[in-house]
Hints:
By secondary structure, this protein is mainly alpha-helical. Helices cover 68% and strands 0% of the residues. It has one domain. The protein has helices at 9-35, 53-102. Helix 1 packs antiparallel against helix 2 (53-102). The longest helix has 50 residues, at 53-102.
Amino acid sequence: MSDGMRVDLSALDEVIRRLWTLLDDMDEAGKTSRYRTDISMKAFGAAGTFQEASDLFHAHKDAKDDLEDAIAGLHGLITRFGKSTSKVRDKYTEQEYANRQQMGGDSGNRSFE
């Protein structure tokens, strides 16, 4: 017997779709942070040009690494949440099917031998 609660499966589908879209966007941001923000040591000046060149290079590298770690962490979080949401959606779908079976919802489709 139903307790009166209903779950909008299409809303769960929309959440899942948006999460996968967000994940695709995060993949692009990850590629950008990894491959398009690299600055060589030469860009900061030849060795000995100025004392802070090495410090600037290492500060940039540390910031780049932090950004990559943050994006990887978000990517993992979105992946876990997306998988969990998909599992919840599947469970509700299975329960809805079982409820229909108990109520004789598919009785018109049965063949009698």
